[in-house]
Amino acid sequence: MANLTPLDQETFKRRVQHYLNSTALPEAAKVSSKAFLKATCMAVNDVIHQSLQDTQKQRQQQQRSINYLSLEYLMGRMLSNNLHNLGLFEQAELALKEWGVDLTDLFEEGHDLALGNGGLGRLAACYLDSMATLDLDAMGYGIHYQHGLFEQQFHQGRQIETPDEWREYGSPWEVCRPEAVQEVFLYGHLEWKIDANGERCRVWHPGQIIRGVPWDIPIVGYNNQVVNTLRLWESRASSHFDWDAFNAGEYQNAHYAQNQAETITKVLYPNDETDAGKELRFIQQYFFCACSVKDILQRFRNVHGNAWNKLPEHFVIQLNDTHPTLAILELMRLLMDEHQVEWHEAWTICQRSFAYTNHTLLPEALEKWSVRLFELVLPRHLEILYSINEWFLNTLVQSQWPGDMTKRRDLSLIEEGAEKMVRMAHLCVVASYRVNGVAAIHSELVKRDLFPEFHQLWPEKLTNVTNGITPRRWLKVCNPKLSQLISQHVSEDWARNLDALKQLNEFADDAIFQQQFMNVKFENKQALAKVIKQLTGIEVSAEAMFDVQIKRLHEYKRQHLNLLHILTLYKRILDNPEYDIHPRVFIFGAKAAPGYYLAKEIIYAINCVADTINNDTRINNKLKVVFLPNYRVSLAEKIIPAADLSEQISTAGKEASGTGNMKLSLNGALTIGTLDGANIEIAEEVGRDNIFIFGHTVDEIKALEKDGYDPNVYYSNNEELKFILDWLLTDEFTPGRSGELRAIRDSLLDGGDPYRVLADYQSYIETQYRVDQAYRNQSNWAKMAIINTACMGKFNSDRSIIDYQNKIWSLVPSRHAFEPTLKAS
């Protein structure tokens, strides 16, 4: 990697020393590792902020920029990634070594910026990295959560949520931007008034005003001196402190307004099981949207004045899922109410400015908010929503399906029922000029099953952009030993052009390279075994197969199907102590939403089964089960390089894409999976001989449902499965507490098995047997693993962003841009 900065080892060391002198305690006998971390980050920031200023200067004449709105950003730890992208890793490592400080150990002192829940937030982080690497003028917008999601701990096997103190002592990467503070209105009432031109206008008198304070986090491009920005909004009261209340002795009430305002950005996804929780989550989404849209308009106005009709020529607003949908209504409100733009012109501007990424086919994940909540919190936005719905139904729907009241009801932005609900996904589709799915099959299902009428109305609107991951963090940073091996055999900078990894196919049959590849895997497994021991006290052998399922805990991802396989193997070994199986370590990492009862019961069941199996000497260490607590980006960076087998076992048609499947495959893990999401495209790239596919297809699942799915048929006709499910009713895994694990069994039998776990059980068990047999042939397994790594070029997030450029955004890179060698899909 070229050194793009003037910092050599000595210069870097002097800068670190400078910041140590100004931040570390002078009387301390020894400088702490936290002090070294802070000083190192500040030294790196010197380079970053100079590049940020240079980038912004070069973009003053930029034709178009992207504004990426996402409620989640799983950024992880940033020091290592920034050093790699800046070309400063070696200088920093050598400089710190002179103080006896190990840079790798220093990384562990940093906190994850865990401002997300799962794939949605990690995808957003990858896309920001790629936009900077491709030198696209881009600004990410999100929320500056005080606690992020939550820190997960286990108490007697059950998930316990505690606050995630990611910035307890501040974050070295963020900068507060008070000059860009925004005001957000809530509640209140509406009235008609006559403006200065004698025209009737609508006026919103808010009942509460919240301040949005922006915190900027730099996003460093790879090897190109480009720095973009992620802007996160923190909520604060417009008036912090009530002196009168304080002086009257009402000390708690003096802080009431501040506490109420700060609650909005306290945590990601406040529990919405209660009406108060729903209201808070709704306000959280609006606060984020309102701040972001106001900021976008302010940035536009600074350059282009009040030429609002030109907004779509210069700014694209990408909605990452439905969480930012309220940005559509807020832009309409601001254009009409504050900038006196006529309704039809404002609506045209909106329809040319927004693009929407759909991430799910699950009905419960397609957000709906009650009309009652709109009336209470956002009365003006509800009026605008009604006007949009009237225009849509009376023009487009009436024209396409004249007099068809069923179509009007199905397509309306308002869902009629016991309580009227606003369909946020419908609003996104109607208001956006382009809508994309995130994998080939997902995008087809969006057209065919989710939005067929919208596709009929706008045949060109719905498109596909298959997800991708950044190879910088998910190979170069997290797997340095494999990265070094690859660089010895690939002739170009694969971290920029991941298609270059195809050169590794030439070595797939090379016995020496196979051994080198598997040696790296073994060393990574040894490192993970130490982490497992440290976090759980469980000892595992790196000689065993590491079978990994790391993702958000949800029924459709089917961690409980994995559990049924574990129980099947356990039963077989107990029945026959000589049962031939290669030793296997099952590794889980997942958080369950605090209010998701069954997901938490699945975690509890896995932990109970793990405790029993791990302490059963009868099975002679053939099986181990590990559930690592507090799964997050920095933990994934340790698990993924060590994985042998990647579990991607969602019900076909339920996983939009997945990105964990890509990360694991890139690092040489073989996939066992259904034909779901990006698994299909991974199978196409690596070849069906190098992936383990099982289970019903999307169409076969639909056929099961059409014929009337009965899980009891599978239960009654499979003695092994019947025993496994009935086992959960006993106290085998919860001594003295029979039936404690029955929730899983009940959901599969009495609950109708909504994600067809039992339908895929036998195919899964048989395919897992093939996995076991394949792993015994280490030479062929190495070949398959090498091919997986070699064929992941398509799943580079750089390619995804180029697809967004070509299909949706029409952005033009500026002077830093390199000629992309990646091909758009």
Automatic annotation (TrEMBL):
Pfam families noted in UniProt: Phosphorylase (PF00343)
Residues that span the membrane, as ranges: none
SUPFAM superfamilies: UDP-Glycosyltransferase/glycogen phosphorylase
CDD domains membership: GT35_Glycogen_Phosphorylase
Gene Ontology, cellular component aspect: cytoplasm
Cofactor or coenzyme needed: pyridoxal 5'-phosphate
Modification N6-(pyridoxal phosphate)lysine, positions: K663
Key words of the record: Carbohydrate metabolism, Glycogen metabolism, Glycosyltransferase, Pyridoxal phosphate, Transferase
EC numbers on record: 2.4.1.1
Biological process (GO), any one: glycogen catabolic process
Gene Ontology MF annotations: glycogen phosphorylase activity; pyridoxal phosphate binding
Catalytic activity, reaction form: [(1->4)-alpha-D-glucosyl](n) + phosphate = [(1->4)-alpha-D-glucosyl](n-1) + alpha-D-glucose 1-phosphate
Keyword Phosphoprotein in annotation: no
Protein family according to the UniProt entry: Belongs to the glycogen phosphorylase family.
Role played: Phosphorylase is an important allosteric enzyme in carbohydrate metabolism. Enzymes from different sources differ in their regulatory mechanisms and in their natural substrates. However, all known phosphorylases share catalytic and structural properties. Allosteric enzyme that catalyzes the rate-limiting step in glycogen catabolism, the phosphorolytic cleavage of glycogen to produce glucose-1-phosphate, and plays a central role in maintaining cellular and organismal glucose homeostasis.
Protein name (record): Alpha-1,4 glucan phosphorylase
Species whose genome carries this gene: Pleionea litopenaei
